[in-house]
Specification:
Number of helices: 21
Radius of gyration: 28 Å
Bound molecules: adenosine-5'-diphosphate, zinc ion
Structural class: alpha/beta
Largest sheet: 7 strands, parallel
Strand content: 15-25%
């Protein structure tokens, strides 16, 4: 690493300018040891050579312009690091760890200041005294006023609620707000910065007393806050064990000692109920971030954090880059969630980046899950993480009983329905008779149906992508759509191959399940939630809210319904086709299935009545399902880790996928083969596996061909060198017609 360079590419003044273009400078010999990626430097800039600050994004020995045209770096800032420097360091690490350009990494971690003035944020508050509001609520009891009641009831507890939260998180329309304003119940005023809302101190239960087990875990974690370099902690707590209460207790301790906390929650679990719990505890010192914030709004959130105006930042993946001055801890809830991994370059994993940031800042990293990722649990077993457990549900709630139903047996005994006899009996007893609720879960979205010929078997494919088209519509009508590029065509009258007219769609998804359910039980109120019914931003909260209010009996949905939601009325959970996710080809299929089924089972019986879980499958003996039925995480882990060890898969080995993209298939294959040969010559060693090139699972998307080379090795740093080698190879050969990307320990197919 003692290599020194002659030139540095520098981004000027990142807080004020767009970060899309670096400028090259000469590094004077006296500064060569000090200049490094991410360092803050002072340089003469522009016609007047005014001294500006900038950041080094890369080093090189190749000058872009004639040497005498280049200016020199004036000095390197060696003082304590501030917010921007920290973000630069984070970006530099990200680029090193995952590849791609420094600009890509900067754009991932930096808040970009926008020049345009943004719209003012508005907040709602009640007018007059509360009795008047209660009287008004009493007068509007008809079902059609449900939303008016809902918002007023919330406002009795909350001082000021941003309009945005009311519309997006509570599903309240602007029309409802207008009416209430006209009736003199609420007023809508502008507020300074977007900062969530605050609970009325008079009504808020500031803090729940913890159970002895919760307290014990919290105490251990609070002790670690004082350490200079606390080891990361993994909290394995079953669903409903009260992990969130523990997080809040530890965060409160961090805040009390003048530190700040970042809390990552998957976007989909970032519901009003969750946010309210944090506001009840931390009041206005909380800020939230979500993926729909504009660049300007995001910048405002960062500024609040930077200026020390908030102590807790809650949000999805990107909230991790909040530049707090004195970060005390990072919490990652539902740490096993796939959404913590970025699916575009740089493909970073929030848990890995959080490890780096926490270590650098001396902060505590706390990962929590009912079903920890195999990777995190493996690290805990190896002693890289401390392991804490919560193995009781809070209060009286008990874990549900689960049953695996062999659907082959059902068929043999004459039941052709998609619902087993057991599930039907439960729905009749619990839902129709006892008026309780059920959740049916299928891990595939509504229109997954492809269209094929019953005579020759030919499936209709997208002409631009190597995938089958999906039917939108029913019967032999509607359109066929490509979910990858948007291509559409009419439902084909004849098979393109054999001209048969027997073209039919194959549909097995949430929509079909919901239809069947309504046919079977005409009096049942069925709600459906999947990618098709949640296209608008407030749909998701609206469906969940309506189900929570028992406006429906059964909720049918994809995996999104199993994520972090409490429905005390639900006593039946069913996984309709539990093995669908086992069919996917990647090594994480069993882990994903186990997580989904365990989490789905955890939804049932959070109230008084014991829950029942039905797992329908064609592979009843599969260990992912049998352990999920027993809610036996450790049992599953043991089985899974031995399989990963045998197959040399992550986390036992690391896997790097080198991905090549290009319009000309022959060229992609030729370049990939040449790269593989080079790799073979220079990096091959005992214990290193090199595979490919092979076409990706989806070989072509949008007329772009996709090929992969795979490298497996136990040592991650060596794989990072392989990545660097490939990047340099592309640079040296000046290959520009083919894109090269990297995915370390991939979580999704390619
Ligand atoms: P998890 O995140 O582990 O699934 P939660 O923190 O959401 O669990 O807790 C489950 C339920 O139990 C929530 O409704 C929560 O309010 C309640 N709960 C948990 N711990 C306590 C406590 N100490 N006092 C009161 N209620 C609690
Ligand atoms: Zn045919
Ligand atoms: Zn397509």
């Amino acid at each position: 690493m003692s290599e020194t360079f002659l030139y540095a590419n520098i981004i000027i003044d990142i807080a004020h300018e767009k970060v899309d273009r670096p400028f090259q400078y000469k590094i004077p010999p006296v500064l060569r040891e000090k200049v490094a990626e991410g360092k803050k430097v002072y340089v003469p800039f522009g016609a007047g050579n005014k001294i500006r600050s900038g950041y080094v994004v890369s080093l090189t020995n190749d000058n872009e312009y004639a040497v005498d045209k280049l200016k020199e770096i004036q000095s390197v800032d060696e003082n304590a690091i501030g917010a921007e420097e920290k973000l630069m360091l984070t970006a530099a690490y990200m680029r090193h760890r995952y590849g791609g350009t420094m600009i890509q990494s900067l754009q991932t971690v930096l808040p970009i200041k926008q020049k345009v003035r943004q719209l003012e944020k508005k907040a709602i508050r009640l007018i007059g005294d509360e009795d008047r509001v209660r009287e008004y609520i009493a007068r509007i009891q008809a079902p059609r006023f449900a939303n008016r009641r809902k918002i007023l009831i919330e406002l009795l507890e909350i001082d000021e609620l941003p309009v945005e939260i009311a519309t997006e998180k509570l599903g309240i329309s602007k029309g409802v707000l207008k009416t209430l304003e006209k009736d003199g119940m609420i007023e809508i005023r502008s507020m300074r910065a977007f900062r969530g809302f605050s609970i009325k101190t008079s009504t808020a239960p500031l803090k729940n007393p913890l159970s002895p087990q919760q307290q014990a875990v919290a105490d251990e974690l609070i002790k670690k806050l004082e350490e200079d370099a606390p080891k990361p902690s993994l909290l394995h707590g079953i669903t409903g064990s009260g992990k969130t209460e523990v997080y809040m207790e530890v965060i409160a301790a961090a805040v009390a000692s003048g530190k700040q906390a970042i809390v990552l929650i998957p976007e989909i679990a970032l519901t009003f109920q969750t946010l309210k719990r944090f506001y009840a505890r931390f009041g206005k010192r909380v800020a939230i971030m979500h993926s729909r914030l504009s660049a300007g709004e995001r910048f405002d959130q960062y500024t609040l954090a930077k200026e020390g105006k908030v102590d807790v930042m809650i949000g999805p993946r990107s909230a991790l880059f909040t530049p707090f001055a004195n970060l005390g801890m990072i919490v990652i809830d539902e740490e096993h969630e796939g959404s913590y991994k970025s699916e575009s370059m740089p493909r970073y994993h929030a848990v890995e980046m959080a490890e780096y940031i926490a270590k650098r800042e001396g902060a505590l990293l706390l990962l929590g899950s009912a079903t920890p990722s195999i990777t995190s649990y493996y690290k805990a077993q190896k002693g890289n993480y401390d392991l804490h457990k919560l193995n009781n549900r809070f209060g009286e709630a008990t874990l549900p009983t689960a049953q695996i139903i062999d659907m082959r047996q059902e068929l043999k005994e004459g039941n052709k329905s998609v619902f087993s006899r057991k599930l039907k009996a439960l729905l009749t007893e619990r839902v129709l008779t006892k008026r309780q609720q059920a959740m049916l879960f299928i891990n595939r979205r509504g229109y997954a149906g492809f269209v094929s010929c019953r005579d020759c078997g030919e499936a209709v494919k997208c002409p631009h992508c190597e995938v089958s088209l999906s039917q939108h519509g029913s019967g032999q009508t509607g359109t066929l759509v490509c979910h990858y590029c948007g291509y559409e065509e009419e439902f084909p009258r004849r098979c393109p191959k054999c001209s048969s007219e027997k073209m039919y769609g194959m549909r097995a998804g949430t929509e079909q399940i919901a239809e069947q359910l309504c046919k079977l039980y005409p009096s049942m109120r069925v709600l459906r939630m999947d990618a098709d019914t949640t296209k608008k931003k407030d749909d998701y909260e609206e469906i969940l809210g309506s189900f929570a209010a028992h406006e429906a009996d059964t909720l049918v949905g994809t995996q999104m319904i199993v994520k972090g939601h409490d429905f005390p009325g639900v006593t039946v959970a069913g996984a309709v086709m539990a093995d669908l996710s086992l069919f996917s080809a990647d090594y994480r299929a069993a882990e994903r299935t186990f997580n989904l089924i365990t989490q789905a089972a955890g939804r049932a019986g959070r109230g008084e009545e014991k829950g029942e879980v039905v797992i329908q499958t064609y592979q009843p003996e599969h260990y992912a399902l049998t352990f999920a039925a027993k809610q036996d995480y450790e049992g599953f882990y043991e089985e899974e880790i031995s399989y990963r060890t045998l197959g040399a898969y992550p986390p036992v080995m690391h896997l790097l996928s080198l991905q090549l993209f290009g319009k000309n298939e022959d060229e992609v294959v030729a370049v990939a083969t040449a790269l593989k040969d080079e790799l073979e010559k220079s990096i091959l060693r005992p214990g290193l596996y090199l595979m490919g090139p092979t076409p990706a699972n989806i070989k072509k998307i949008n007329d772009v061909y996709r090929y992969g080379i795979y490298v497996k090795y136990a040592d991650l740093d060596e794989l990072i060198c392989v990545k660097d080698f490939a990047e340099q190879y592309f640079e040296k050969k000046e290959i520009s017609s083919i894109r090269l990307q990297f995915d370390f320990d991939p979580m999704n197919g390619f």
